């Protein structure tokens, strides 16, 4: 029986089924550790390296799951989305594999490397102003023009279930018991998926998110109990500029332990430590959880911590250090 589109909060079996469904379209990414970073933080950190994922980011998991569950009629006119870059590339790649066109709305300040990657997968890219409202308005125009099926970057249970598979692999492959799992938070697709994975498969493990002070809507939402918005998107962590959705926020409220905020300087410092100590490329959004470990040592000292390194799509000509 073919997989169907999920219309409910993913169950443990939904996550397992999603993992089976996307296996041909993704890498099972490695887990790495760094003695140097462990010494600096006093924690035992295991990094799930989604920077080695197809398209260079975890977003391939959610896009692959959502696209794979569509019917031929839904796929007929192609796929559409709005994204600052990694989900854009993931939807473009999924469309390419499925042999249908992709139409992607990207903010005008999207990193050049992500724009180039999206176009390289054959997508038509349409630019908009760098606000959630502009993205949604331009996306509506594109869908009206093309009839393409919209795969939301995070407000989609199929996407959430796909993103949940990164933490599932981390739990299965690390050969340890985690005190804490960490993910950055923008729209909340990865965080809500990670929280569900921990809830179902490691219920004694806490899930702690991290986000920049400059776009701390998830932190404020978590504490106010309602979805908050950001006045600006002035952060080096370009993948975390979007607000939560109703679907992701409901899961986060129920299953996430805490959300920590970090300064821009801490993000750049953490990114540089991974580049220099681990010799791997990560993007700024990816460094936010490690920045939180550096910034709040009292929370993490002596703990076994799993961090999802979300992606490595960096504009090499425009590094923040």
CATH topology value of the largest domain:
Rossmann fold
Poorly predicted runs: none
How many beta-strand segments?
10
- Rough shape? globular
Summed over residues and divided by their number, the pLDDT gives a mean of: 95
Structural classification: alpha/beta
Question: What's the helical proportion of residues?
Answer: 40-55%
Radius of gyration: 18 Å
CATH class of the largest domain: Alpha Beta
Order of helices and strands: HEHEHHEHEHEHEHEHEHHEHHHE
Q: Per DSSP, what share of the residues sits in E-state strands of 2 or more residues? A: 5-15%
Distance between the termini: 51 Å
Largest sheet: 6 strands, mixed
How many distinct helices? 14
Q: How many domains in all?
A: 2
User: What order do the strands of the largest sheet run in, or round the barrel if closed?
Assistant: 1-2-10-7-8-9
CATH architecture of the largest domain: 3-Layer(aba) Sandwich
């Amino acid at each position: 029986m073919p997989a169907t589109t999920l219309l409910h909060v993913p169950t443990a079996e939904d996550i397992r089924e999603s993992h089976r469904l996307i296996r041909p379209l993704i890498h099972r990414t490695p887990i790495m550790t760094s003695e140097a970073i462990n010494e600096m933080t006093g924690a035992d950190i295991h990094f799930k390296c989604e920077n080695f994922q197809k398209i260079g980011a975890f977003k391939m998991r959610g896009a692959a799951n959502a696209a794979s569950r569509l019917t031929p009629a839904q796929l007929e006119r192609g796929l559409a989305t709005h994204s600052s870059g990694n989900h854009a590339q993931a939807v473009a790649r999924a469309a390419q594999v499925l042999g249908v066109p992709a139409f992607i709305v990207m903010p005008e300040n999207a990193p050049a490397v992500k724009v180039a990657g999206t176009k390289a997968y054959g997508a038509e890219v349409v630019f908009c102003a760098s606000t959630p409202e502009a993205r949604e308005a331009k996306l509506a125009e594109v869908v009206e023009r093309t009839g393409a099926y919209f795969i939301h970057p995070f407000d989609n249970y199929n996407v959430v279930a796909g993103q949940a598979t990164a933490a599932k692999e981390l739990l299965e492959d690390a050969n340890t018991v985690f005190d804490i799992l960490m993910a950055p938070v923008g729209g909340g697709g990865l965080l809500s998926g990670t929280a569900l994975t921990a809830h179902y498969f490691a219920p004694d493990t806490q899930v702690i998110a991290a986000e920049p002070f400059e776009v701390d809507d998830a932190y404020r939402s978590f504490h106010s109990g309602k979805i908050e918005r950001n006045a600006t998107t002035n952060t080096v962590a370009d993948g975390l500029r979007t607000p939560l959705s109703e679907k992701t926020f409901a899961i986060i409220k129920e299953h996430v332990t805490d959300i920590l905020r970090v300064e821009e300087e801490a993000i750049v410092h953490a990114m540089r430590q991974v580049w220099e100590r681990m010799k791997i490329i990560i993007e700024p959004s990816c460094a936010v959880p490690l920045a939180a470990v550096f910034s709040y040592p009292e929370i993490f000292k002596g703990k076994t911590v799993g961090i999802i390194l979300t992606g490595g799509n960096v504009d090499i000509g425009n590094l923040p250090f």
